[in-house]
Q: What sequence folds into this?
């Protein structure tokens, strides 16, 4: 199967076949990162620009490593070093980059829809590395890859996503992806963190962590952003952690072989207790990071015509 | 100069008239209206009279858009009074009222006088400035209503900068009422709307765009109704967009309160589903709402709850719109599509022709106390001629407005103004 899409803007736009192709391609790339010489010449001569308008360590590094392991040239632009500070518009920045003929532009932006704006205007492939509260497709793909590896399947699993759904692009992309792949999805968080009409996405919604994680195969905890406290969506971290922190006690409600995921960076003791985060019998948080490189290698490969 | 319009269907809600008749214009006024004027006129002084044959056309009192933004002074790259009035007459509007959020804001006599002078120089549509309620529309100190009224404002509003202080709004409504100056309220509780971008609902959720809940509008409409009732004054509600708002206004009217209201064509034409493309031309405030809201707006128009269709003409430059969705300016350049979109209500049997003309001419004239909105003999010869059959496709490149920001670009529409006459002079001829 050939990958036909020009851009990866969101999981919403991907078919089940496309998701499977990406995951299978990623699996074949996993091994490269375990070699002594972690580099193959596949994308030699290709140029990939990481255009990051929002702070990121994990995702940006992951994209950079993915590109370098495939021998592509990578350039990182972050908003503090770019012409953004000089007041250049996103479109002008992108058109200038386009004129330098890169092959792929990876963009992260705090404004939802920013990658879509670029994709409409410029000819190169765009990969969305997170746009506002909209989508974070590569995160969902690496999450699906992790689940598939640990559970052998996605279909039929019960996945609980807990926390600030409203502001989470990870949640949205995973809801699209996991439901396409046949999982049952339940969400939980205080009502202030549950966006309106979210149940229309085909998920069950609870305001209580315990109700949501009963018999869950996968529990995905979302990061609580401290600055959200100012928006009155929760009174204090103290109270939040008392009711929505995954710990030794409440995790017993989930299946015995539950896996615990987190897109990172984690707030220890806020949404996840340190002993759960560090427990290798359930926590797959670092496996997720590991899969991230492979998934991004797969996307770079497929978008530059790999598999033709 | 005399003009005789002959052969058309003439609709005047004020005279309860809908018939094929002739209409004679003389010295900027409507001289005569009736059957067979043409015969007598032709026989007498045919050389001095311009006879316009209008078979199949509809002649109505000049359309009035009571909610526009002309951007001058200060934001001329978006629109000038000349380009805005050119757009108005091309869209069939003989009179427009313009909101005060220019730069500087129209909060004093000299800005009002400037706008009026520019409109006279442009010599296209009649321009009626709306003054700010508070100095700088900052919401703290009332402007000099009386002085501005003498300079030519016909209403007051802090459009776009809602008056959050209920006590200030109460005082504004009381003081304005004593001057017979209508108060137009942009109803938006800015604590509830926050930094929202689109209607709060399923689409804001899946698009990850911050929501503006319907109650941000409804809560303030409820407040204005309460103030109007308590102080026994009147208020006009701008750009109604939700089902809840329609319900509140309907109930207030039933109780006999002096509340009037308008909506804009996009609120009965588009829903928030259109936002899925992140196309900033669909970004407007209040935001496009749900299907249920659109149906309620149509019902409100049909049952008379909503008195007026006004397009909230909000022209912007490319730089304001060709940016990330959340940084893009709100607004639609509407003057040149408003009539055709509204005619679709007649095609879809939501309104009759006479009701439509009431909402686009007679009612705005009544609410703003303008001696307009009728074809009675002796009235100013402000006339719009509509070709109800003309099919056309919206093309922003041919807009007279500097604002090319229309979500209707490329849309096929039916019905168009083909002749716009202001004070007895032809200001637009699209035949």
A:
């Amino acid at each position: 199967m050939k990958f036909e899409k020009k851009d990866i803007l969101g999981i919403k736009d991907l078919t089940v076949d496309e998701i499977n192709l990406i995951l299978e391609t990623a699996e074949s790339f996993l091994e490269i990162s375990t070699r002594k010489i972690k580099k193959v010449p596949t994308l030699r001569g290709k140029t990939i620009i990481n255009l990051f308008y929002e702070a990121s360590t994990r995702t940006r590094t992951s994209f950079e490593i993915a590109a370098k392991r495939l021998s592509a040239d990578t350039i990182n632009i972050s908003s503090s070093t770019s012409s953004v500070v000089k007041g250049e518009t996103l479109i002008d920045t992108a058109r200038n980059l386009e004129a330098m003929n890169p092959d792929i532009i990876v963009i992260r932006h705090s404004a939802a829809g920013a990658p879509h704006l670029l994709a409409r205007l410029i000819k190169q492939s765009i990969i969305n590395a997170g746009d506002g509260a909209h989508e974070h497709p590569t995160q969902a793909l690496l999450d699906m890859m992790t689940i598939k590896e640990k559970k052998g399947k996605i279909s039929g699993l019960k996945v609980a996503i807990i926390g600030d759904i409203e502001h989470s692009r990870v949640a949205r992309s995973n809801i699209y992806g996991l439901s396409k792949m046949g999982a049952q999805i339940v969400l939980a968080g205080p009502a202030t963190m549950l966006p309106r009409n979210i149940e229309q996405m085909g998920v069950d919604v609870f305001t209580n962590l315990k109700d949501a994680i009963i018999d869950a195969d996968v529990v995905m905890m979302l990061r609580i952003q401290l600055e959200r406290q100012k928006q009155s969506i929760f009174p204090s971290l103290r109270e939040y952690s008392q009711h929505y922190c995954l710990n030794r006690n409440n995790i017993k409600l989930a299946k015995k072989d539950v896996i615990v995921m987190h897109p990172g960076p984690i707030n220890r003791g806020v949404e996840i207790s340190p002993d759960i985060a560090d427990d290798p019998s359930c926590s797959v948080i670092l496996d997720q990071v590991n899969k991230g490189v492979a998934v991004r290698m797969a996307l770079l490969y497929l978008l530059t015509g790999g598999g033709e | 100069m005399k003009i005789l319009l002959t052969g058309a269907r003439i609709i005047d809600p004020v005279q309860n008239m809908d018939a094929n008749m002739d209409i004679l214009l003389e010295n900027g006024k409507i001289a005569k209206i009736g059957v067979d004027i043409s015969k007598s006129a032709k026989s007498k002084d045919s050389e001095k009279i311009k006879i316009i044959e209008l078979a199949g056309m509809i002649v109505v009192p000049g359309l009035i858009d009571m909610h526009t933004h002309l951007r001058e002074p200060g934001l001329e790259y978006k629109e000038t009074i000349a380009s805005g009035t050119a757009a108005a007459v091309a869209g069939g509007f003989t009179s427009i009222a313009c909101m005060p959020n220019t730069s500087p804001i129209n909060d004093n006599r000299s800005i009002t006088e400037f706008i009026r002078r520019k409109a006279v120089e442009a010599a296209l549509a009649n321009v009626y400035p709306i003054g700010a309620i508070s100095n700088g529309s900052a919401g703290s100190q009332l402007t000099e209503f009386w002085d501005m009224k003498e300079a030519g404002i016909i209403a007051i509003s802090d459009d776009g900068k809602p008056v959050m202080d209920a006590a200030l709004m109460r005082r504004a409504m009381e003081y304005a009422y004593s001057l017979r100056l209508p108060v137009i309220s942009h109803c938006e509780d800015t604590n509830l709307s926050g930094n929202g971008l689109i209607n709060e609902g399923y689409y804001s959720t899946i698009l990850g765009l911050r929501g503006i809940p319907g109650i941000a509008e409804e809560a303030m409409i409820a407040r204005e109704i309460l103030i109007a009732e308590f102080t026994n004054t009147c208020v006009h509600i701008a750009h109604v967009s939700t089902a809840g708002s329609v319900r509140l206004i309907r109930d207030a009217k039933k109780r006999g309160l002096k509340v009037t209201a308008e909506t804009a064509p996009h609120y009965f034409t588009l829903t928030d589903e259109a936002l899925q493309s992140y196309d900033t031309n669909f970004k407007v405030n209040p935001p496009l709402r749900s299907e249920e809201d659109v149906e309620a707006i149509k019902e409100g128009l049909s049952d008379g709850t909503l008195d007026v269709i006004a397009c909230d003409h909000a022209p912007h430059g490319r730089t304001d719109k060709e940016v990330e969705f959340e940084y893009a300016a709100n607004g639609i350049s509407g003057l040149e599509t408003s009539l055709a979109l509204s005619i679709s209500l007649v095609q879809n049997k939501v309104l009759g022709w006479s009701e439509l003309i009431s909402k686009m001419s007679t009612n705005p004239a009544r609410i703003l106390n303008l001696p307009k909105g009728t074809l009675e003999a002796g009235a100013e010869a402000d006339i719009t001629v509509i070709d109800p059959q003309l099919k056309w496709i919206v093309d922003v490149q041919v807009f007279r407005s500097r604002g090319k920001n229309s979500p209707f670009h490329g849309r096929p529409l039916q019905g168009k103004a083909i002749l716009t006459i202001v004070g007895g002079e032809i200001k637009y001829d699209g035949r």
